[in-house]
Amino acid sequence: FPSQTITGNFANVIHGLSANHLTDQVIQRSKRMILDTLGVGLLGTSTEVCHKVTQYSKIYSSDLSSTIWGHLDFRLPPLYAAFVNGVAVHSMDFDDTWHPATHPSGAVLPAVIALSEAFPQKKKISGLDLLLAFNVGIEVQGRLLHFSGEARNIPKRY
C-alpha cells in the first residue's frame, strides 16, 4: 500500500506476528537471552538502587500483582513489578546489548513476565505465547531504534 504511513506499516507488521514466525533458532536464542536476563536480574536484586526502588514501590497496591524477583513474600502491581525487576536487570549493567546501543531484554522481559502473571488463572499464557511476546517487544525496540536518527549517532558521540 503506497499510501500507508510508516507508522501504519509498522503496526501491521507487529500485529501480524504469530508464534508461527518463531523459528527454532529464534526460540533457542530467545531462551538464552531470557535465562541471561533472569540471572543478571536476580543478581541485581542485591544492589542498593534495587533496594531503593523496591522500598519506593511498596506504597502501591492493586488487586493484580506480580512477582518481585528474589522476594517470595512480596508482590506489586504489574507496572511496578516490571519497574523494580527492570531496575534489577539494569543495575548490574551486564544485561545483553546490541548496536545501536540498547539493552533489549532488560526493558522487555520484566514487562512481559509481570503482565503474564497478571492474567487470570483460567487465561494463563503458554510458554510459546511468552516467547512470542518477548520477541515482539524486541522487534518493536529494534525497529524504533532503526527509525531513530538519535540512535544512529550514539557511537560517534561517545
TrEMBL record:
Q: InterPro entries from the entry?
A: MmgE/PrpD_sf, MmgE/PrpD_sf_1, MmgE_PrpD, MmgE_PrpD_N
Could you give a GO molecular-function term held by this entry? aconitate decarboxylase activity
**Which residue spans adopt a coiled-coil conformation according to this UniProt entry?**
none
GO cellular component terms attached to this protein's record = mitochondrion
* Highest taxon in the source lineage: Eukaryota
**One annotated GO biological process:** defense response
- Alphabetical list of Pfam families matching this protein: MmgE_PrpD_N
Query: Which residue ranges does the record assign to the MmgE/PrpD N-terminal domain?
Result: 9-152
- Family according to the record: Belongs to the PrpD family.
The protein's name is IRG1 decarboxylase
**Native organism:** Serilophus lunatus
Query: What does UniProt list as this organism's lineage?
Result: Eukaryota, Metazoa, Chordata, Craniata, Vertebrata
Q: Which gene encodes it?
A: Acod1_1
